[in-house]
Amino acid sequence: MDALASLVAHSEVPAEQSSAISMPAFVKLAAQSELPAPGEAKEFELGDGIICVANVDGTISAMDNVCLHHGGPLGQGMIEEGKVVCPWHGWQYDPQTGQAAHNPNARVAVYPIKIENGEVMIEI
Ligand code: FES
Known about the structure:
It contains two helices and ten strands. With 124 residues, the chain is mainly β. It has helices spanning 3-11, 15-18; strands at residues 26-31, 40-46, 49-56, 59-64, 78-80, 83-85, 92-93, 110-111, 113-116, 119-123. 21% of the residues are buried. The protein has a single domain (24-123), classed as 3-layer Sandwich (Rieske Iron-sulfur Protein). FE2/S2 (inorganic) cluster (FES) binds next to loops.
């Protein structure tokens, strides 16, 4: 067996391990009635973390709550011109993409979110 074939052979995941790899799943974040009003953001606890949910003109989105500058709580920020504004020093994030407005290298994680039967579900 040459070096490449050996590398490929050793990189394969055995069948018994591949079935143990968990897929992302939607979990309940909140009740629909708890969502922020249009033009507002809000924090929601999820496990050991906190998710920032933003409502931009009725479009709901979810992203990490921790600002990449110095850890400010994004869910406590305001929404201005479609961006979530960190309450500590004003960094702005696109809640759809998590992209910081002024820094192409700064992006917080965003999560798929949906509403089903009055419950807000998030894919983590
Ligand atoms: S911590 Fe968010 S802008 Fe400074």
